[in-house]
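This entry is set out below.
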Amino acid sequence: MSVKLESLMAEVNGSRLMAHGSWQKGIQASMLSAFSFQLLAAMTEGSEISAGSGGTSRPTASRPLRIVIAGGGTGGHLFPGLAIAQEFRTRNTGNKVVFVSTGNPLERLVLSQMEFKLETITAEGIKGRGLWNQAKSAVKIPKGVIESIRILKDHKPDLIIGLGSYSAGPVVASAWLLGTKIVLHEQNILPGITNRILSRFADRIYVSFKDTKTRFNPDKTRLTGNPVRKELLNHRTKPAVSGSKPFCVLIIGGSQGAHSINMTVMEALSHLTKKENLYFVHQTGTADEHMVKEAYGRLDIPAKVQSFFRHMAPQYNQADLIICRAGATTVAEVTALGKAVIFIPFPFAADDHQALNAGSLVREGAAEMILEKDLNARALGRKIEYYASHPQALEAMSSKAEQLGHPDAAKNIIDDCYRLLGVDI
């Protein structure tokens, strides 16, 4: 162990480390290993590690809390964290929330706009990157842990919230070493590797799908749903499907768009037979924006086409039918808002989790799903026209989606965090 890491460890809550005895050596050794997380998982297999101070203390008077939210990277991790942060700020204006992640452009842009502080650490993904890249990523973990310990000692948080992305790993590990309470949030139906490992250190685990509960310790797992941003919930409305209003189809392929969806939709436009009553809102991503815009214009189909919509609430509000990927955040948003949806899952998502996410709604009649290998323009065009001309089927699907939604997810998570910390709600 380097002198630098050794001196930092010496500063960490001494009684905490002594209480864990041999665990200290195992954790420190695993951090220096080229396969740190894999070894950590193996060491803790079949056992649960008590995180924080253990148990829920007697409630104390409500007071401002200091919260660190760890992880982000993609919108699927960042936006639920943002919804949680907004709820903490709403609950008590004195609450201080800091995000800790790698500081990619999306994180910097979104968090600066929402006026949340971002601290950055060194971290890289491990899974699915090849043995050499995995090794290079793993040996960066000690640096990320050192940086995380310094950040946590600076901010002295009451609670760490891990969002499941790889950048949450060093922060949560540091929180455990410091004896800080830890909660995790899992967005997808199939937990990612980071949360599967870190779950052993957590005091509480919040999941978005009922089927996910069986994958964690049931004593500390709560079904809350996936938090949705306030700006979407505060402006939700149900569009009236009638002959006087064009049928609005919203197409979103994630923040970067989805090329295969864009290409299929462009081809599907030529198969539509009742174009005069249709209106499209299409988020294309930067690369396809001009091409898609030209396609609508060439066929004289009214549409709003942009590479990216900064404000999604108006787009969701006017949508009668949504065609989209099945990332956890999108699934949470369409169910919380009660929208009819055709999912086209991203076929290369880790562990095919997008198809699993979508499948949980399809089984309840709350969505349709087309696997990308089965995607074709003529069939997609037929589905659009079917729902445009069958408002009862559209309403049945949207009602079932709404029944599966969790618009109070952020509130329920924050309520439970207060109970966990023994602070009056």
Summary: Residues 232-404 form a domain with the Rossmann fold fold (CATH 3.40.50.2000). The CA atoms of residues 123 and 167 lie 5 Å apart. Confidence is low (pLDDT under 50) at residues 1-45.
